[in-house]
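can u do me a favor
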């Protein structure tokens, strides 16, 4: 199977994201491009930018970067919460160089590692009044990286600026031309537009480069899906260091002439915004939004006096979708949930369930010009052959959105390296799944060990390294534990030194102090005699992952005052819990247990021992 070839010219599309803005400004000039909410309490009074406004602000930002010393094709590092300035800051960087937007919640040393790898020339960060911790982190980054020639701040005054402080973003931009770029050579479709770090907390930073062609392609491809058709108004509540926020809820509507409603710095974590969610939908006539299952589970009931008929579909991805979340949301709202599958290494999305063709359990069909297959790997982890239809293997993706490899430092600076991840044009995702004869893709699990907490990727190695630094600890394995709210949370299995007395509370305090960010601190600690290993001595986490599921099931049974035998095993490549009630139970209790377990992402069966 030969990967498809695609170019922007084939669909008469713009070459770059800046060209996209220019074309859309010509076509949709005074139409609202962005409604920017300061926070969840101010949804009735947003700041609104038309397409002309946005293009002008992006042009000013690009010219600002050039004037403070950004070389053509240089890298602008963003360390920002979502604010109004974040959009021109990001898109302006792509207009004249490469944007590298980083999660500001990452540990400082990881932020430094990422910006050192990407060769950031200019840093845009929050002023102290906007985010005091973010300002302190930016100052540490600046001190560690002398190659950053200018620091620009967003959101307020800086009373004691460091030497390389160039000024306030808005003030600098206001003094620059909004009419044209001050650069002779424009970016091209094959140039890199963005560097995204993968995961929320990666041990050794992995950075995925995206070309303009890949971002433009995906904005166009998503626009062919029914959820993005017609008059489009997209609600955005994800951070702009995440590919979903940039591609799905920004570039896709901008290419189509739609409108994005940005929820503000806290996004879906803004309690007032979530409480007013359906009124926001009614007020702006939202047609779709994209969120992780956790967000869907937290949404309030639809008020009787609110009209949500504008909403075509809710898009969900990044974590396993529990059956109960889908059932409850669709029953309460009448809005279909559209599952998709993608990853940063493939720019963002690769498959989507077609609107009106729900196949529960499937993540849909490949987007146009993309191909997805399941492959068997040899002993060296390379593709041996393709799996037949319906057989579980490692998913591989080809097409115009596939990245060229992780960024590595080379003799001539950073460059993409396809080693171990790209084989003959196919991206080896590390995810297990199958492809049916009809082309629909089904996920069976993850070959990777990442813990996905509410759509936030956590590398277990960071947890393990933090706990191994405790003097009482000799071995650690961190695994995902199913969670009804977040999908998964970290659970740590710990082996202590002989004679050591560290308790779970002691380890929790240590982890809080040493893990790189709050999301990576385990919620559960289990002190065990040994960590399982394979025949060749490698850590074997599958039994621990099964044990974490077993503990969840037993907890649910205990709350229902029932006892049972619980066995967890892999069935068709996916963890499956078999629950055999010991004392017998009536059908009502059986239904209650099944409903409680339906809130989780694993499969299960519940049987009554007396009914066999």
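np, heres the sequence
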């Amino acid at each position: 199977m030969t990967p498809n070839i695609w170019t922007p010219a084939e669909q008469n599309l713009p070459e770059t994201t800046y060209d996209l803005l220019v074309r859309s400004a010509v076509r949709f000039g005074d139409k609202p491009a962005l409604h920017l909410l300061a926070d969840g309490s101010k949804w009735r009074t947003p700041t609104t930018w038309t397409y002309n406004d946005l293009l002008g602000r992006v042009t000013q930002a690009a010219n600002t970067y050039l004037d403070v010393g950004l070389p053509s094709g240089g890298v602008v590092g963003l360390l920002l919460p979502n604010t109004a300035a974040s959009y021109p800051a990001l898109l302006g960087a792509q207009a004249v160089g490469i944007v590298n937007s980083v999660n500001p919640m990452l540990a400082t040393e990881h932020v430094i590692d990422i910006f050192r790898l990407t060769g950031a020339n200019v840093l845009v960060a929050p002023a102290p009044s906007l985010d005091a911790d973010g300002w302190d982190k930016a100052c540490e980054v600046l001190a560690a990286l002398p190659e950053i020639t200018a620091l620009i701040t967003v959101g307020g005054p800086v009373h004691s600026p460091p030497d390389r402080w160039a000024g306030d973003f808005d003030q600098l931009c206001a003094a620059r031309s909004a009419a044209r770029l001050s650069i002779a050579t424009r970016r091209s479709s094959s140039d890199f537009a963005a560097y995204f770090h993968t995961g929320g907390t990666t041990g050794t930073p992995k950075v995925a480069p995206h070309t303009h062609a890949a971002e433009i392609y995906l904005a166009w491809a998503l626009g062919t899906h029914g959820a993005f058709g017609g008059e489009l108004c997209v609600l955005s509540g994800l951070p702009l260091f995440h590919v979903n926020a940039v591609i799905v809820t920004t570039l896709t509507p901008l290419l189509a002439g739609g409108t994005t409603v940005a929820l503000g710095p806290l996004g879906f974590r803004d309690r007032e915004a979530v409480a007013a969610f359906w009124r926001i939908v009614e007020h702006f006539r939202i047609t779709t939004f994209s969120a992780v299952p956790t967000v869907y589970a937290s949404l309030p009931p639809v008020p009787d006096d609110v009209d949500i008929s504008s909403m075509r579909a809710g898009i969900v991805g990044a974590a396993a979708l529990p059956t109960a979340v889908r059932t409850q949301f669709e029953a309460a709202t009448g809005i279909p949930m559209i599952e998709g599958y993608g990853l940063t290494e493939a720019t963002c999305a690769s498959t989507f369930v077609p609107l009106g063709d729900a196949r529960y359990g499937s993540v849909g069909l490949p987007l146009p010009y993309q191909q997805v297959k399941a492959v068997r790997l040899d002993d060296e982890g390379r593709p041996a052959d393709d799996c037949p239809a319906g057989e579980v293997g490692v998913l591989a993706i080809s097409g115009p959105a596939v990245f060229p490899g992780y960024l590595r430092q080379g003799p001539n600076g950073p460059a993409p390296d396809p080693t171990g991840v790209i084989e003959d044009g196919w991206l080896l995702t590390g995810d297990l799944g199958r492809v049916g004869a009809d082309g629909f893709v089904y996920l069976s699990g993850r070959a990777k060990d990442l813990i996905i907490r509410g759509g936030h990727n956590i590398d277990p190695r960071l947890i393990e390294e933090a706990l191994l630094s405790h003097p009482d600890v000799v071995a650690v394995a961190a695994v995902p534990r199913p969670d009804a709210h977040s999908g998964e949370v970290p659970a740590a299995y710990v082996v202590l030194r002989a004679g050591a007395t560290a308790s779970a509370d002691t380890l929790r305090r240590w982890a809080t102090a040493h893990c790189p960010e709050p999301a990576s601190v385990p919620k559960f600690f289990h002190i065990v005699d040994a960590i399982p290993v394979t025949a060749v001595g490698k850590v074997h986490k599958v039994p621990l992952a099964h044990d974490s599921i077993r503990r969840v099931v037993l907890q649910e049974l205990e709350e229902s005052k029932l006892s049972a035998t619980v066995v967890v095993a892999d069935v068709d490549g996916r963890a499956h819990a078999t629950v055999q009630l010991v004392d017998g139970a009536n059908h009502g209790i059986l239904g209650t247990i099944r409903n409680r377990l339906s809130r989780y992402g694993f499969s299960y069966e519940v049987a009554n021992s007396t009914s066999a």
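The radius of gyration is 25 Å. hope that helps!!
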